[in-house]
Specification:
One of its GO terms (molecular function) is ATP binding. The chain is an alpha/beta fold. The protein is built from ten helices and ten strands. It has a domain of about 170 residues: Rossmann fold. It has a six-stranded mixed β-sheet with strand order 6-7-8-3-9-10, with helices on both faces. β7, α6 and β8 form a beta-alpha-beta unit. It is globular. The structure holds adenosine-5'-triphosphate (ATP).
Amino acid sequence: MTTTDIAPIIELRRASFGYADHPVVTGATLAIRRGEVVAVLGPNGSGKSTLVRGLLGLNDHLGGDVELFGQPRESFTDFAKLGYVPQRHTLSASVRATVTEIVAVGRLSHHRWWRPVIRSSQDAAIIDRALDVVGLNDRAHADVATLSGGQQRRVLIARALASNPDVLLMDEPTAGVDTANQQVLSEVLARLAARGTTMVIVTHELAALADIVTRIVVVQGGHIAFDGSRDEFASRTGEFASSADHHHHEDESRGARPRLPGAPSSGPLDPQGGARS
Ligand SMILES: Nc1ncnc2c1ncn2[C@@H]1O[C@H](COP(=O)(O)OP(=O)(O)OP(=O)(O)O)[C@@H](O)[C@H]1O
């Protein structure tokens, strides 16, 4: 392995993110390396989405450092390397588009904007492969409005995959999806993990992903309260029980107080924000 292989592809050092001048996530220190499958857990409103969106530059960066592929995020431009599947996002029923057309949007970042987008045969092959991974080849020409919520999530994952990202960041990919479709989605994620895809997955359904997750990060009250292996996490299940498999309830999500106990003074918890190496 060369140094570039082991250098983190995402690195936060005491990073803070929020909205306007209001910090929501503070002092987050985290390094994600190639091949890792990281589950981000935590109570509703603890700041998981703010953390993921923050490292992508989608909210305000209020302190500390963010490096993407070894470069400060402020000067980083190659966002095609980061595939993002946003939270609670399905495709609008008012937009008439086929599955292929939506997935093709993932190719846009590979085309210079001033040129008309002419899909090459290489693009077509990549789109095909992305649809194959999410098991939607047979719906390629279907109108997206005719798909179920779970299928639409898979279209969005395929769109992210079509940009050939180095890392996939997914915000609750299985939320609001029925059990059968959750199973299909877990299989999709397992297939991606088997291909060595680096993934950061915000989830309340750890059980569905337990086989593929290599590392768990718990966000609690805007801090990284735990960062460790599945085994370390399992040995502290009691402490973090409410972080995993806590079903999402929209009503209690905003402004909810963290339900997890306070950080103890020893062990993998770091009250300063998780500065562990
Ligand atoms: N667009 C926004 N503008 C202002 N404040 C926001 C915004 N989005 C989130 N917040 C604040 O940040 C806090 C954390 O929200 P965030 O969505 O990051 O939590 P979460 O852990 O992802 O929650 P959930 O599990 O419910 O998705 C919220 O309680 C809210 O106060």
